Structure formats: structure tokens, C-alpha cells
Amino acid sequence: xxxxxxxxxxxxxxxxxxxxxxxxxxxxxxxxxxxxxxxxxxxxxxxxxxxxxxxxxxxxxxxxxxxxxxxxxxxxxxxxxxxxxxxxxxxxxxxxxxxxxxxxxxxxxxxxxxxxxxxxxxxxxxxxxxxxxxxxxxxxxxxxxxxxxxxxxxxxxxxxxxxxxxxxxxxxxxxxxxxxxxxxxxxxxxxxxxxxxxxxxxxxxxxxxxxxxxxxxxxxxxxxxxxxxxxxxxxxxxxxxxxxxxxxxxxxxxxxxxxxxxxxxxxxxxxxxxxxxxxxxxxxxxxxxxxxxxxxxxxxxxx
Length: 303
What we know:
- This protein has helices at residues 27-40, 52-63, 103-108, 147-152, 156-162, 171-176, 184-189, 222-236; strands at 5-7, 14-16, 42-45, 86-89, 125-134, 142-146, 166-169, 193-196, 198-200, 206-208, 214-217, 242-245, 252-256, 260-264, 275-282.
- It has one domain: Double-stranded beta-helix (4-Layer Sandwich), CATH 3.60.130.10.
- A 7-stranded mixed sheet has the order 1-2-3-13-5-15-4, with helices on one face. Strands 12-6-14 form a 3-stranded antiparallel sheet.
- By secondary structure, the protein is α+β, with helices and mostly antiparallel strands.
- 24% of the residues lie in helices and 23% in strands.
């Protein structure tokens, strides 16, 4: 199968022509999608009526092992029974909209910060895949920022100064910035991880690796490190580097967490239901990714 991809932004993002991802099982087409990811960093697929099981199956078939150490796991049991299927919604297990002061809703507000999925674990996230199930009748967009274009736009001296810097990422930090509180036991589960500030991406391009989870630069005094991270995020999220996705029911968006940041835009989430399901793969060596995962295989392996 030869995929048709239409670029949606001057720097990145492609919309893929008609294809039913549930039926894509041949390695050649899966590799073609991966090649599209290397070029565009974000791919938009329309009319993908995934069930939860079908989404988990495709995610593994496409890119292997799934991330299952989500932040919500320390707050509440996953209502789908599988931590690899993240519940990006504003409803509870009973299907009712969460109350304004519900701890799950308050924790979810951090999705409005610019972030990179699963940067707070090691190995971090590679591809995230978000399936739109219920979309409100008001704008509830998701914005993406191209971290490769942002890196390219830095002057040579600044790029050189960033080489070799390592950054600690903690999801507890990004929530605490908003006033969210964790118990000592919860913090123990959310220790975080350390990753390079600049990453080399497939094809040789370089990109910034930033997130609201980025709490400090290893070896730097805290104020200076946080100021640099803040300035870089401000630079990387300038309008020239940002694409805003307006969701439609059945949309399925895949993005490369190594090459992008993203954030949810606010809407009246105490009035309108919004339900999406996310799967995120772990950034493991390509030769560790299986050719395919048979039906009935475990949906994720905790790390």
C-alpha cells in the first residue's frame, strides 16, 4: 500500500489519505507510516473507529512495547483495566462528567501545559496515539510544537551551549507547579528520569527535548537551569512552530514525542463530555521492536 500524505503546516504534520489502520498488518505499510513519522513528526488519520482492544493491538503492531507507568495510576484505578490505555477524558467510571474539584480532573489540567508524553520514565515515550471517541460541540483543540524546527532556528552559539546538557523530568514537578499535591508514597512512584536536552532523531536531524516535566538541568544551580528551560520552551512554542488540531470524531493522531511537544486547549469541561484514548510506545532500540504482535498478546509490560 502506498500512503498519500498532505502536509498541514510549513514545518511538520501530515494528513494521511484514506486508510483503515485496523486492517494494516503488513510490515511494509507499517514501515511507510514510520517513515512518514520521521518526516512529519505528527500524522493525522481520519475516520478510525477503534475499539479499545483494536487501538492497543494497532499500537503494539506498529511500534512494540507500550508505556504503562502513567501518572493517573497513582491516583485511581484505570477504568479500562489496562494502564497502557490512558483515559484522556473528563468522565468517571460511571460515564458522568467529573466534578470541578475531582482529583482526577485537577490532575488532568496539567495537560494544558506544553509537555512530552512519558519523558518522566526511562525509557521515555516514542510515539503517542490519540483516538477521538466523544468530541464536544465546542473547540477543544490540541496544539503541537515542532522541536526540530525550534532547534534549527537557534543560533549556532546557543546550539553549541546546549550540547551535553542533561535534564531531570518529573511528572510530580509539572503537577506541583499548578498546586497539585502528592503524598510521600505517590512521589516515590513518580521519581522521574534524566534525558539529554538535545536529541539526534532518525535521519540525523536534531531537536530540543523539552516538557513541562523538565524540572532541572543536572549540575546547574536550580534557578539558572529552570530559567533556561523556561526560555527554551517559550522559544519552541512560538506560533511559527505550532500546529493546532481541531478534533473530529474518529480522528486518530500519532505524534513523535522525541520531536514534538503538545498541549490541550481549555474548554468548558464541567459542561461538555470529551473522551479520548491514548496509547504511547516506549523508545526502545528498533531491533527490539517485534515484526508483529499476535492477537491475544499482553497489551503492555510495565517498566
